[in-house]
Design goal:
Number of helices: 11
Shape: globular
Largest sheet: 4 strands, antiparallel
Strand order of the largest sheet: 3-2-1-4
CATH architecture of the largest domain: 2-Layer Sandwich
Helix content: 25-40%
Low-confidence stretches: 173-179, 185-195
CATH superfamily of the largest domain: eRF1 domain 2
Structural class: alpha+beta
Number of domains: 3
Length: about 375
C-alpha cells in the first residue's frame, strides 16, 4: 500500500496526465460483509471504462484499466480491507489507499484526480498515531475514535535495536526472541540481559533517539497527527528526552502493546487522546467566537467563498457529514448550487477546503455537535 501522507507531500496527487481516474468505495473488514466488495469494485471499474470509451481509444484505456482488473482478482487484498477504499490512476500512476473511514461510491474520469474525500479524512480532528516502543523493537499504529490499525514504519526507520545500531550494539542485546504487534504476526527480535548496564543504557538512548528522529521525519511531520507513546513506564522519560517531537503527547499508554488486544489498545488510546481532541475543538470554537465580533469570523457561505479565493481564510471549519452540492469558481468565488442527484457535481464545502489548503490555510473537519454555527461551515479570517 502507498502512503497518502508521502504522496501528498511529494505532490504526486496534484498533477497527472489526463485521463485521471478516481475510484472510491466503502469496504468491510470482516467476512461475510466483505464478500460483496470486489463485485461492487468491478461495477465501478465498468463505469470507468464506459466513461473512458466516450473520449479515448482502446489502446489508451486498456493499460489504465489493467491494474484495476489485477486488483479485482487479488483475493489477499479483498480479505484485508478496512472501511473504505480509494484508487487513483493515470499514465504512470496507480495508487491504492485503504481507508479507516467509509466513503461514498464514486467513479470519475477527469483532467485531475478527485481528492476531496481524502482531504476530509486527512483533516478530521479525531485521528492520531501510536508508537509502541520497547528496548527491542517498535510498532506503529494509526487510528481514530472508532478504529485502530497497525501500519508499516516508513523505509529508513529501524524496526529493532539491531537495525539501528548494528555491530555497535552491546552484546547482552543479542539474544533472539519473538515479538509482534497488537494482533499482528510474530517476528524475530533481539534482546538480552547482562552486567554491562552503562553500555546497555547508552544503547537504549541511541536506539530511542534514532526511532524518535525517524518517526518525526517520516510520520509525524508529514501527517501532522498527534503521537501517543505506548511503552513501559521506565522507558517513557528517556524517549521524551531524546525524541524532540512536537507532536508527541505528554500522556501515553503505560503498557507494552503486545500485552493488549487491539480493541483494548484502541480504547486505552482514545482515553489518552480524547482530552487533547476536545481541548483542540474547544480552542477552535473559542477562536471563532472571539473573531466573529471583530468581523474576522463568518458563517455565511457566499462571503466565505469570496474570502477563500482572496486568500483571507486562515482556518476553515467544516461540519463532518455535511454536504452542499454545487460548484465554486476558483477565480471569483461565485457559488452555483445544484442537486445531489447530479453525480457529476462536487461538494462546495470540499471545494472550499481544497482551495484553503492551496492558499496555505488550515482546514478542520468538526463533529456536528461541536460546530459553532448551524450552517455547516465557519471561517476565521487572516484580516
Amino acid at each position: 500500500m502507498y502512503s497518502l501522507y508521502q504522496d501528498d507531500e511529494t505532490g504526486i496527487l496534484e498533477s497527472c496526465v489526463p485521463p485521471c481516474i478516481s475510484l472510491y468505495q466503502p469496504t468491510h473488514r470482516h467476512f461475510s460483509e466483505n464478500q460483496q466488495d470486489p463485485i461492487r469494485f468491478c461495477n465501478l471499474v465498468k463505469t470507468l471504462e464506459e466513461s473512458l470509451l466516450q473520449k479515448y481509444p482502446t489502446e489508451v484505456i486498456q493499460p489504465l484499466l489493467d491494474p484495476f482488473l489485477a486488483l479485482a482478482d487479488s483475493h489477499d487484498f479483498w480479505n484485508h480491507t478496512l472501511d473504505g477504499l480509494a484508487v487513483l490512476a493515470a499514465k504512470g500512476v496507480f495508487r491504492v489507499y485503504r481507508l479507516q473511514r467509509s466513503v461514498p461510491e464514486l467513479a470519475i474520469v477527469a483532467d485531475s484526480f478527485h481528492t476531496k474525500p481524502l482531504i476530509r479524512i486527512r483533516q478530521s480532528t479525531d485521528r492520531y498515531q501510536i508508537l509502541g516502543l520497547s528496548r527491542q523493537a517498535i510498532t506503529l499504529y494509526e487510528g481514530n475514535r472508532d478504529a485502530l490499525d497497525q501500519i508499516e514504519p516508513a523505509q529508513g526507520i529501524p524496526r529493532t535495536m539491531i537495525e539501528a545500531l548494528g555491530a555497535e550494539v552491546t552484546e547482552p542485546h543479542m539474544t533472539v526472541a519473538s515479538y509482534g504487534g497488537v494482533g499482528g504476526e510474530n517476528s524475530a527480535m533481539h534482546h538480552g540481559h547482562g552486567g554491562k548496564e552503562p553500555e546497555v543504557a547508552i544503547d537504549d538512548e541511541r536506539f530511542f533517539r534514532a526511532i524518535g528522529q525517524g518517526i518525526l521525519e517520516h510520520h509525524s511531520r508529514p501527517s501532522g497527527l498527534p503521537l501517543i507513546l505506548a511503552t513501559l513506564p521506565e522507558h517513557r522519560q528517556l524517549f521524551h528526552e531524546v525524541s524532540h517531537n512536537p507532536f508527541l503527547l505528554e500522556n501515553g499508554i503505560d503498557s507494552n502493546p503486545e500485552a493488549l488486544s487491539l480493541d483494548e489498545f484502541r480504547m486505552r488510546a482514545w482515553q489518552v487522546f480524547e482530552p487533547h481532541y476536545l481541548a483542540r475543538l474547544d480552542a477552535l470554537v473559542a477562536e471563532f467566537s472571539s473573531a466573529r465580533p471583530k468581523d474576522l469570523g463568518d458563517d455565511d457561505l457566499g462571503r466565505i467563498a469570496k474570502a477563500v479565493v482572496a486568500g483571507r481564510v486562515a482556518t476553515l471549519l467544516i461540519e463532518a457529514n455535511r454536504w452542499i452540492p454545487g460548484r465554486i469558481s476558483a477565480v471569483t468565488g461565485d457559488i452555483e448550487l445544484d442537486d445531489l442527484a447530479n453525480t457529476q457535481i462536487d461538494d462546495v464545502l470540499d471545494d472550499l477546503g481544497a482551495l484553503v489548503l492551496k492558499m496555505g490555510g488550515q482546514v478542520v473537519i468538526m463533529p456536528a455537535e461541536r460546530m459553532p454555527t448551524a450552517m455547516g461551515v465557519a471561517a476565521i479570517y487572516r484580516y
